[in-house]
Amino acid sequence: MTDAARNFIETYERERAALPGAGLAWLGARRAEALKAFAEAGLPHRRLEDWRYTDLSRALGGATLSPAPLPDGAVVLPDAAKRASVAAFHDIDRHVIVFVNGRLRSDLSGTKLPAGVTLMSLGNALNSTWARPLVETKVEAQAGNVIALNTALMRDGIGLHIARGAKLDTPLHLLFLANDDGASHVRNLVRLEEGAEATIFETHLDAGARNYFVDHVTDVSLGKGAALTHVKIQDEAADAIHLASLTAELAASSKLSSFSLTLGAKLSRSQSFVTFRGEGAEAHVNGATALSGTQHGDHFCIVDHAVPNCSSRTLFKTVLDNASTGVFQGKVIVRPDAQKTDGRQMTNALLLSRDAAMNAKPELEIYADDVQCAHGSTIGELNREAIFYLRSRGIDEPTARQLLISAFLDDAFETVPHEAARDDLRKLAASWFERHREKTA
Amino acid sequence: MLEIKNLHVAVDGKEILKGIDLTVEAGKVHAIMGPNGSGKSTLSYVLAGRDGYEVTEGSVVYKGRDLLAMNVDERAAAGVFLAFQYPIEIPGVTTMTFLRTALNAQRKARGEDELDAPRFLKLVREKSKPLNVTDDMLKRALNVGFSGGEKKRAEILQMALLEPSLAILDETDSGLDIDALKVVAEGVNTLRSPERAMVVITHYQRLLDYIVPDVIHVLSKGRIVRTGGKELAGELERTGYAEFAA
Questions:
Q1: Cα angle B9, B11, B12; round to 5
Q2: Which of A96, A174, A256, A412 could form a disulfide with A317 if both were Cys (CB 3.0 to 4.6 A apart)?
């Protein structure tokens, strides 16, 4: 076992009595079981097929893994002029909830929410009957047991419950700030009852911390006809490690739209596990990534068509400069009963440098015969002819490149249903180019 | 305006242009005709500054400046414009965004104010109308899914907006039916002015019925082998390029 894995186990032994829901027998058993599964498997390494291109075990070797301290005093946000992600979603009317070092800092009782919408801390959520099935997620053992690590150590987070037919009036914006080095284990639980609707924004960024580990899990359960839009921005510090998983179970006619923009961290892995439980449901799992330096960004996505008549769309666009590395591993599973499945998965990467590398492994696993499925992967460079054409009209080379890169990413942004959020993502991508241009100039 | 002296150009080590001498004065339209493979497109690309064209000898002076020392976008900002034989498709960049970026880049390079959205929109509408460039085309990605005629009209629209001092039209007639050709030629003729020089490159005489040149040069095997007035086009149409290709 690696030091990092041992460190997590020791943290659990030391702190388990203080973890949220410590008094709940079912949860205690659940945590112990999860820890056992994690301890047996250890941290994922590259000999596991699901982790073939991302060595989390090695990356965590040099990280600060003891729990990040409870923040004291005021946290200073980075200057928005330098870090555009600070300003993202800012002009949208929304409810803002702040976490620092993975600990909830906002007073949830101060958030005025419509009838039927309940927002609570993870500790309170774990006491609610709706939350238990979410924590007993079926996909926990998949992809190297990293969700089990979170189940054992989850320390803070929110629970969002929306009653039948109710709607969250304006988006809920969860802002995660890292102020001190250390590990944070956050769990968010989201349950939308029949016909409920919500939009959740997430921003992850550093505000003082440098070397830290974010372990983040969001479990989503959508009732019949419910609809959730989820937009996430990951802009962690250059030395940070960001590990995030989204699990979602979709009842009949429900709709999930998930988008993640990956800009930061030394190493990041973003996992999505979507399972269709009822017919006529729809899932959109999309993302855009722009990396430079020696950054490593991994998107792992499994869409499980367990029932007939559901549709899924996955589009990931990746731009890689310098010696950065991108990974996409995606799988669409169509179970024997899942006739009339419509599943599509596409990943496109643009390499801006000879030293950048993209690993893409899209997979289809189809056991039904009356389905429409397609997947594809492209890896390419900027079109030199196109650059010449743009320059021949007086556009300088950096601007020409930026136009082409923006155009490349734009297909992914187009999938975000919230218009103002989509514009903010575009602005963020543009600021990435500028930041990046200054660095390389 | 443009003075080319003893220009030798090689591509992949193979000499394509073998000593071109050409002087184009402001206000004049020069046509360059010649068979396939004579070096017509090479001449247009080397003037625009495309990579892969190695000037081994000679000079090109544009408005008193060494054109060959300028990079591609500097040449454009200085007023050199190439209408492409095969305009490039740019997915994801709308024609409107492209036009505005290009115009403002050139204005900025010349130290002029950038045009704001309303002023730009008004200008584009005004220039688009005579060329039958519809709002729909302006909203679509540049050249993506455009017909041959639409692509060429979009090229002429760019020229009309950017108002170059030296316009080089590379086989602007290729792929056009007679109606499209008339629209494009009319667009080009409107841009003729005492301050502007044009070099019209074509294989066929047909285009020159509509854009009547002041001077015609025949290019063959990398050299200008004959120079004459506009009547030379009719002669070539009758005799073909056989005597020059031989």
A1: 140
A2: A412
Query: Quick check: A184 and A153 in contact, CB under 8 A?
Result: no
Tokens linked to A76: 């200073």
Question: Could you tell me if A348 and A318 are in contact, meaning their C-beta atoms sit under 8 angstroms apart?
Answer: yes
Give pLDDT tens digits for A112-161: 999 999 999 999 999 999 999 999 876 666 666 789 999 999 999 999 99
Nearest to A396 among B48, B73, B91 (CB): B73
Residues of B near A (Cβ–Cβ under 8 Å) read 48-51, 71-73, 75-77, 81-82, 84, 87-88, 90-93, 97-98, 101-102, 105-106, 109, 141, 158, 162
Alpha helices in chain B (DSSP H): 40-48, 72-77, 95-109, 117-128, 135-139, 148-162, 178-190, 206-210, 231-239, 242-245
On whether the CB atoms of residues B162 and B81 are closer than 8 A, the answer is yes
Cβ partners under 8 Å of residue A267, min gap 6? A54, A56, A59, A241, A242, A295, A296, A297, A298
With 0-12 CB in 10 A as exposed, 13-18 as middle and 19+ as buried, what is A98? Answer: middle
* Strand B29-33, strand B215-220: pairing: parallel
List the single residue in A with minimal CA-CA distance to B91.
Answer: A407
B195 CB neighbour count, 10 Å cutoff: 10
Q: What percent of chain B has pLDDT over 70?
A: 99
Cα A177 from Cα A74, distance rounded (Å): 12
- Model-level ipTM above the cut of 0.85: yes
User: Nearest CA of chain A to the CA of B13: how many Å?
Assistant: 21
A217 vs A265: CA distance, rounded Å? 17
Phi–psi pair at B38, nearest 5 degrees: -85, -15
- C-beta atoms of A391 and B84 within 8 A: no
Partner-chain contact B92 A408, CB within 8 Å: yes
User: Over the stretch A176-203, which tens digit does the pLDDT of each residue have?
Assistant: 999 999 999 999 999 999 999 999 999 9
pLDDT tens per residue, range A87-99:
999 999 999 999 9
* Mean pLDDT (chain B, rounded): 92
**Cβ contact B73–A391 (<8 Å):** yes
Q: Flag if B72 and A391 touch (Cβ within 8 Å).
A: yes
Q: What is the DSSP letter of A62?
A: T
Which residue from B91, B92, B162 is facing A393, i.e. has the nearest CB? B162
The pairing of strands B223-228 and B215-220 is antiparallel
